[in-house]
Amino acid sequence: MSFLFKHKTRNPAELVKQIRLDLKGIEGIDLGSPSPARMKKTLSFGTLKGFKDGDVALHKTAKHMGQLRKMLVGDESIDGRVGETGSDKDGNGRAKGGAATSTSSSAADGSTPYPKDCAAAVTEMCVQGLIKDLCLALTQLDLEVCRDITACINAVLGYTAAGSGAKPGVDYFVENCQIFDVLSAGFQDDATALHCGNILRECNRSPDLCKIMVLEPGQVLWNLFEYAECAEFSVQSDVFDTLKELLLKNKGVTSELLADKYDRIIGEYTKLLTSEAYMTKKLGLGLLGKLLLEHLKGSMLRYINDPKNLMLMMNLLKDKAPSIQYEAFHVFKVFVANPDKAQGIVEILSRNHKKLISYLENFHNDKDNEQFKSEKVIVLQQINLIGLNH
Which residue windows does the record flag with biased composition (Basic and acidic residues) (predicted)? Predict the structure, then answer.
């Protein structure tokens, strides 16, 4: 009689279809075509009605998502489910060098083989439109299910077909750009921010998807700047992590952004640096410093030759928070070290050189950092030379 209690083993097409049916049974998830009015409602992540504990559809979704995750990435620990792409994980959320179960095809780059049903599962998720449904459902599901969703979507994004080198997951996102609106709106809710940010950062591995998020239409980038002043620290940190990936990972895309929309991007940075919120200023300065170093020979030369930006950094050097002062120094030093300073920059440094030297001589002398100490000496020497020669 044991056969009566056996669970049905579904193939990838059946499993994907079943998950879509499960999601339709959860109250508050609208999987219809996104009309403007419906999309506006969808983007308001906190407004949807939740389900009751013990809801059958929820439990079925959790079970079936676990099965789908296993099809895509094999057996792994819970740490691998989140889909973070750290040094011990590959682009699909699988542990590097770890054996996936029941494999029959290898990844195109020769790394860990894909599980035997991975290719079929990726195809079905794209063909049946499950990826969009899962993104819409994130706000209504619990943490463990959301982790499985994130791991599955990231696995699809990272999948490369053997032989052809095709990336069906990337192609799906290119053809369904409205998903980016849903994902960026996820930062409005601390329950979904981690998962949405995780997926967006995985998308950013593809230059084609990076262009959509940053350049055309580029709305993801501008949404992130809007959410960067979020009062919830965990959400704000994830926003800045995602901004850093979008602006630093694909240098060519960022160069094009700075060339075409310099005033707007610097305007957004200025809002961050003049914010009343401590963490917003600190994280904004850190991100600006990295952007300067990456693009100093390109569009960011314009930034360090603008007297208004120098004055802003000089004011931040005197901020009441020591960590803000320290971060501001690492941007200020770039203005001073520039060998081809604009006349306006030279005049400001010359006019204020005595005050700057007096202030910097006692600036963070308690720091036990040899690189900082040597950089401060160089900055003082440069300012002193400017004062002597002008």
Answer: 79-93
CB distance 174 to 212 below 8 Å: yes
Are residues 245 and 209 in contact, defined by beta-carbon separation less than 8 angstroms? no
Say if residues 206 and 216 touch (Cβ distance below 8 Å): no
Q: How confident is the model at residue 284 (pLDDT cuts 50, 70, 90)?
A: very high
C-alpha 60: how far from chain center: 30
> What are residue 115's DSSP bridge partners?
103
38 — pLDDT class (breaks 50, 70, 90): very low
**CA-based radius of gyration for the chain:** 25
User: What does the DSSP assignment read for 74-88?
Assistant: -S--HHHHT----TT
Q: Tell me: pLDDT of 42 over 50.
A: no
Q: How far apart are CA 310 and CA 302, in angstroms?
A: 12
Strand partners, 89: 95
β 103-105/114-115 pair status: antiparallel
Average pLDDT over residues 189-194: 90
The vertex-146 CA angle with 35 and 52, nearest 5°, equals: 80
The values of phi and psi at residue 103, to 5°, are -95, 145
> Is residue 114 helix, strand or coil?
strand
Say if residues 213 and 220 touch (Cβ distance below 8 Å).
yes
> How many angstroms separate the CA atoms of 60 and 19, rounded?
8
DSSP letters spanning 274-294: T-S-HHHHHHHHHHHHHHHHH
The beta-strand segments (E) located in the chain are: 103-105, 114-115
Residue with tokens 């079929």: 120
Q: Residue 179 above 90 pLDDT?
A: yes
For range 311-326, the mean pLDDT: 97
- In DSSP terms, which residues pair with 260 in a beta bridge? none
For residue 239, the one-letter residue type is: V
Reference 269, options 283, 256, 257, 255; nearest CA is: 283
Contact 381, 344 (CB under 8 A): no
Say how far apart CA 43 and CA 257 lie, in whole Å.
Answer: 26
Confidence of residue 76 (pLDDT cuts 50, 70, 90): low
Give CA torsion, residues 274, 280, 281, 285, to 10 deg.
Answer: -120
